[in-house]
């Protein structure tokens, strides 16, 4: 058993179709990650806390953070907020492109929605490799 499994293994499965309701494509690396692991998560590479997707009742969950940002800024459904707010920024997963963005609310949000913000990570797997660096 890996350290990830021991620390973050999801004890209770997600309800059937839950990831689909969030727009996370089945079979994607994001779907696999959130099906297997339960957060919140921390990283030695960043102070962003990666939120858990599995319990929308939590104040700090992907679903609640996303709904809050959508209500304030009108973001389209393709964008999921996957982190807490840190220095007026959030990490955002694009369910259409599988990219992850570091989005600030001082113009970066407008660039994201207009399609002009470069991805911080081309794929969710690239993001996970950075967020959870292997022990060296």
Cα gyration radius (Å):
14 Å
Distance linking N and C termini: 18 Å
Global morphology: globular
Overall SS class = alpha+beta
- Spatially, the strands of the biggest sheet line up as 1-2-3
Q: Order of helices and strands, N to C?
A: HHHHEEEHH
Low-confidence stretches: none
Q: How many DSSP-defined strands?
A: 3
The helix content is 25-40%
Description:
- The chain is α+β, with helices and mostly antiparallel strands and 136 residues long.
- Helices cover 34% and strands 10% of the residues.
- The protein contains six helices and three strands, in the order ααααβββαα.
- The chain has helices spanning 3-8, 18-22, 29-36, 62-73, 108-114, 124-131, and strands at 79-81, 89-94, 100-104.
- The protein has a three-stranded antiparallel β-sheet.
- The chain is globular.
- The two termini are 18 Å apart.
In a few lines, what is going on in this structure?
This protein is about 35% helix and about 10% strand.
List keywords for this structure.
3-stranded antiparallel sheet, alpha+beta, 136 residues
Layout: helices, strands, pairs:
Blueprint: H1 3-8, H2 18-22, H3 29-36, H4 62-73, E1 79-81, E2 89-94, E3 100-104, H5 108-114, H6 124-131
